[in-house]
Amino acid sequence: MSKLIPAIRVKNLNFYYDTQKIFESVSMDIYQNQVTAIIGSSGCGKSTFLKVLNRMSELEKEVKVEGRVEFFGQNIYERRVNLNRLRRQISMVFPRPNLFPMSVYDNVAYGVKLVGWRPKVELDEIIESAIRSADLWDEIKNKLHKSALELSGGQQQRLCIARALAVKPKVLLMDEPCSGLDPIASMKIENLIHNLRSELTIVIVTHSMPQVTRLSDFTAFFYSNENRVTQLLEFGTTNKIFTNALDSRTRDYVLARIS
């Protein structure tokens, strides 16, 4: 294996929503061009952690951050950070498709247009490339100017991925991207993740342990203590977490959900 390069480094993170402490002493590296899975019981803050990584958490409540979250060496919580640029570079896909009530084409073009004007020919190329990258072009190339809301659920989710890819992110955060999808649609999303892993750094939250073993290179297990404060209990290669975890709580969690 080539040398692993951290795309994101979380160092001694304490994170608060208003005055409520959510995370305590979280430190981990998210490696470039690797898939990292975030696992843990419902309500332990996995989705919130993703939003911490691109500061989308600040769109929900007042936050307080102690420690550092570095994106290729830059602390993203410095005041001078351009949040629009950060969120383009660290893009996010949500559990349910969150498409706009507009055409397929305009949905994918939305983020690109926010960056600045592009000639129509160039924009067309960007849109087609993003939809192809989401393995969706052959299915919807004749529906580009129809409402995106007419697509199937699986197609809508892949279109959300295409929209995220259109702005050329370096990191893709995926919060339960197969939630609510049938097995065939879920498999298409999984195949897409496999195809993207050589181009992007991917962080995925999922409750499916078989999916974790199929997709991820590294796994982080989050655990809430009796005070409902979440800590990173264990982090390592997915193989180690699933076959030789150090903490009995990690082993119990994995075993209960993979059997």
TrEMBL record:
One GO term describing the cellular component: membrane
InterPro entries reported for this sequence: AAA+_ATPase (IPR003593), ABC_transporter-like_ATP-bd (IPR003439), ABC_transporter-like_CS (IPR017871), P-loop_NTPase (IPR027417), PstB-like (IPR005670)
Residue span, ABC transporter domain: 8-249
Keyword ATP-binding on entry: yes
Single Gene Ontology MF annotation: ATP hydrolysis activity
Keyword Nucleotide-binding appears in the UniProt entry: yes
GO terms of biological process kind: phosphate ion transmembrane transport
UniProt name for this protein: Phosphate ABC transporter ATP-binding protein
Species this chain originates from: Komarekiella delphini-convector SJRDD-AB1
Source lineage: Bacteria, Bacillati, Cyanobacteriota, Cyanophyceae, Nostocales
